[in-house]
Amino acid sequence: MITKKSNFNVSTTINRLENILNKKGIKIVAKIDHTTAAASVDMELRPTQLIIFGNPKIGTPLMQHNQLTGLELPMKVLAWEDKDGDTWVGYHQTKNIINNLGIQYIPEITNKISSALDNLTDYAIRD
């Protein structure tokens, strides 16, 4: 798991990530506001949002190699506020996803996904 502290609140962090994904032409599959879901059943949860996104040109070759990767694709990034009011983003490291599924490591694809996740989340969390 990779976690990074954001300079912004949860909503702004997710919006910045959404904006860069749109600019890069990366498909946003879903955006889930866990805080709103909790409130709908009269429960409290600090701000927590998940965004699910992917690029079939990158993810499909992994799925062609082994369809079990469909359990983890498209990619997901979670943004949350901790008990101290700090905002964080977290996502699974691509190499670990592959290892956990017992799939052969394909560096040219997994490194590309890892690099993209690092760059996209860096943009979302920094000025």
From TrEMBL:
SUPFAM superfamilies: TT1751-like. It comes from the Bacteria. Pfam families: DUF302 (PF03625). Residues 32-92 form the DUF302 domain. This is Camphor resistance protein CrcB. It comes from endosymbiont of Galathealinum brachiosum. The lineage of its organism: Bacteria, Pseudomonadati, Pseudomonadota, Gammaproteobacteria, sulfur-oxidizing symbionts.
